[in-house]
Automatic annotation (TrEMBL):
<dbReference type="GO" id="GO:0006898">
    <property type="term" value="P:receptor-mediated endocytosis"/>
</dbReference>
<keyword id="KW-0325">Glycoprotein</keyword>
<dbReference type="InterPro" id="IPR029058">
    <property type="entry name" value="AB_hydrolase_fold"/>
</dbReference>
<dbReference type="InterPro" id="IPR002472">
    <property type="entry name" value="Palm_thioest"/>
</dbReference>
<dbReference type="GO" id="GO:0005764">
    <property type="term" value="C:lysosome"/>
</dbReference>
<comment type="similarity">
    <text>Belongs to the palmitoyl-protein thioesterase family.</text>
</comment>
<dbReference type="GO" id="GO:0008474">
    <property type="term" value="F:palmitoyl-(protein) hydrolase activity"/>
</dbReference>
<keyword id="KW-1015">Disulfide bond</keyword>
<keyword id="KW-0378">Hydrolase</keyword>
<dbReference type="Pfam" id="PF02089">
    <property type="entry name" value="Palm_thioest"/>
</dbReference>
<keyword id="KW-0812">Transmembrane</keyword>
<keyword id="KW-0732">Signal</keyword>
<feature type="transmembrane region" description="Helical">
    <location>
        <begin position="12"/>
        <end position="32"/>
    </location>
</feature>
<keyword id="KW-0472">Membrane</keyword>
<protein>
    <recommendedName>
        <fullName>Palmitoyl-protein thioesterase 1</fullName>
        <ecNumber>3.1.2.22</ecNumber>
    </recommendedName>
</protein>
<keyword id="KW-1133">Transmembrane helix</keyword>
Amino acid sequence: MTGLINYIFKLLFLLYAGSAVSITPVVLWHGMGDSCCNPLSLGTIKTIIDRTFPGIYVKSLKIGSTIIEDMENGFFLNVNHQVDLVCNQLAADPELKDGYNAIGFSQGGQFLRAVAQRCPSPRMLNLISIGGQHQGVYGLPDCSYIKHPLCNYIRKLLNYGAYVGWVQNTLVQAEYWHDPLDEEKYRSSSIFLADINNERNVNQTYVQNLLKLNNLVLVMFNNDTIVQPKETEWFGFFEPGQDKKLYRMQDSVLYREDRIGLRKLDQQGRLKLLAVDGNHLQFSEEWFVNEILHKFCGS
Ligand SMILES: *[C@@H]1O[C@H](CO)[C@@H](O)[C@H](O)[C@H]1NC(C)=O
Ligand SMILES: *[C@@H]1O[C@H](CO)[C@@H](O)[C@H](O)[C@H]1NC(C)=O
């Protein structure tokens, strides 16, 4: 009898342990002015994920060796270099060897897309972009929202010239600055966004790698006053030559020519467009748990 009970306990334990370790790990990339571990932002997100899937492995990316450095690098470390650093971090982490789901917040959304396109190993299963700027931005950051002294300095630099060589190479936000009044300059000078969006030429490796995702999930905030235009969160943008009229993703060259694989993902039902009422990154825990974690991170 005790033998049987022991056996049942052992079985239950194995089942429990088995289910705990089989939850796919999650990798998070924070937004501008934020860090890996801020208790008010990604710290809370990590806690929610831990609570939803006990035992899950969550890696909140830290770019640099300290939290201060991590935050500063979000402004001043060349994004291409950041992506390289992250690719190395992910490849070196044995917990991720069987794949992971990725959630990017704000600029972390487009940075993780670069990781998906450039670094297929370990495999990213689902990419969830929460308020990411996939066609870039055309509008100075709102420093009443990003309450950091560096923010005003960044406004000055972008105003001075986002495509000026040294600004482009040192200022992260210049690297996804998309000027609809000068598309040619954007295409030729943007060292990050124009590259991952295959604007200069079509890098087939990027297409093949993006198509390896199970799902690309793009969340847009309906009342976003921080990101200009908010439609960039769904690959929409200003029509060339002006900054009022917008095109939708489906009407973009990127989609019509399928330059990065978006149209194929869409046709196969693997492109998910979600809209949330609220300003930038304003979402409820309930929404995050039900619409993101349970739908895309729960296996
Ligand atoms: C395409 O992207 C891959 C992955 O980043 C890179 O190694 C390769 O050099 C790129 N090819 C071209 C033609 O830019
Ligand atoms: C947010 O945007 C949605 C969709 O455009 C709109 O229906 C809603 O009224 C807006 N909410 C606020 C508070 O402005």
